[in-house]
Amino acid sequence: MCGIVGYVGDQEALGVVMDGLRRLEYRGYDSAGVAILDGGLTVERRAGKLANLDKEVTAHPLTGTTGMGHTRWATHGAPTDRNAHPQTSCDGAVAVVHNGIIENFARLAADLEDRGHELASDTDTEVVAHLLEEQFTGDLAEAMRTVCRQLDGAFTLVALHRDAPGVVVGARRNSPLVVGAGDGEYFLASDVAAFIAHTRDAVELGQDQVVELRRDGYTVTDFAGGPVDVKAYHVDWDASAAEKSGYPYFMLKEIAEQPVAVASTLLGRFADNGNLMLDELRLDEDELRAVDKVFIVACGTAYHAGLIAKYAIEHWTRLPCEVEMASEFRYRDPVLDRATLVVVISQSGETMDTLMAVRHAREQAARVVAICNTNGSTIPRESDAVLYTRAGPEVGVAATKTFLTQITATYLLALYLAQVRGTMYGDEITDIVEQLQGAPALIQATLATVEPVRALARELAGAPAVLFLGRHVGYPVALEGALKLKELAYMHAEGFPAGELKHGPIALVEDGLPVVVVVPSPRGRNVLHGKMVSNIQEIRARGARTIVIAEDGDNDVTPYADSVIRVPQLPTLLAPLVTTVPLQVFACELALAKGHDVDQPRNLAKSVTVE
Ligand code: AGP
Q: Which residues of 183-194 are buried (b: 16+ CB within 10 A; e: fewer)?
């Protein structure tokens, strides 16, 4: 949430910062602003999307080679010009941008007002600008350290001071901030995407650290001013991966990239001895053999991936597996101990709810494995082991390719656990791995046949609501289909287990209501398939318009389906890799038919760094 860019070098900062903000706009898009140092300190900020700010700074460019910018997802204060960042001090000497929530801002604001400061916004951020004004005696980094020690909550802060030319200072606690190290130029950003066009050399900042950027280098300390070790890394993708590449929307491109994303996630994962190769492993096989319970913890789409993983983990490893929304996990005091394996799933690696779950689990001595798409992000850094999904950057706010790669990664993890614990034979594992390796081609084949799904979506753009039904792994797929439609098309959409429908939700079914049904393979548990065919008849008898997703060759559903969407055959547990795809396309096309921006749906942000 909120995108931050800082720059010092020899280029015009405005261009670098605006370009960085464009690449970070997925993090928040209700207002934006920039501050540029050039003898004086000039701030421009505008409510609305970045385009509003762009218009202003194109008409009246700001010059200077030191600057910063912000694209906002509002927490405190409405998305107005006044509440946009950068926020400034009374004397206009300090400008600050912020991502996160300063929990003790009300008390700090009252104290500042007692000391004569006038606060001009409704934001929690503004207090930092006034505190820096008080603390600054020539060293902005030192002032930042002093201020950070007074703050509670989560924050990434970047600041400029009129009297600190050529200096950009950043600080982080519980929110992301990365340094980009170029040749005679340095960057700060919430995400490497902001500076990837200039450098692929990045430096992770740790918890409670302050960084000072100058043209000749950077210095990182802890909040007390002590030296710290930082980890440098090379980003393994380039700027072109975060471009639309001819697609009108990132989401369309990311849906199309799914075969490659899944193939990359599978690539080279097994060593000669069959062991899964985790990217970072601070766990040994004895610890995995001692595991007696698995928790999967995640939010949103990643939570749906976890629900699918539960079926695979329990079936293949015979370990009990619970799946929990990260925002609920720590507050209900789950029973965890050293024999509990907690698997957290997060595309961004920065989701605050999930991060707090990681910390809670580790405090209870549980072992934590992260499945993550973002190298160097906080969640993998704080976990015991990491399996990266190699989907590449996902810019569209709605998760698509990362969902399929998350499912893929959980299959790998489940197979690895089964191997280590001896709950499957080697040839059984090999058989599933081979099926998985064939999945990218089947996803591609699914994508090649979605044109009728698009036509159907356009036809249903006026529907008041859509229901989604599934059984077994089809149930989380139904939830994901409904979530996509809600977030993109702003439509009422619900996913239900098909068997649960008769216990209440069937009352929603009325004449013409579109109901999408994800049908399990008849080659799997025959009884499940038969029950689903009955469920389709039940809703059809009540007037529903039935849209049935069924595998090739399943003709039992045809008589009861108003529309059939075909997907290639895969083993039951792996079927979500193909059944999800038409639902993504359906939601995207329906939202486009309604005239919505599918990359930046209203009220959302991609990386949710507040609880
Ligand atoms: C899905 O389309 C959403 N963008 C959202 O539900 C997302 O999956 C959730 O916020 C979790 O994000 P994470 O994977 O980055 O932790």
A: eebbbbbbbbbb
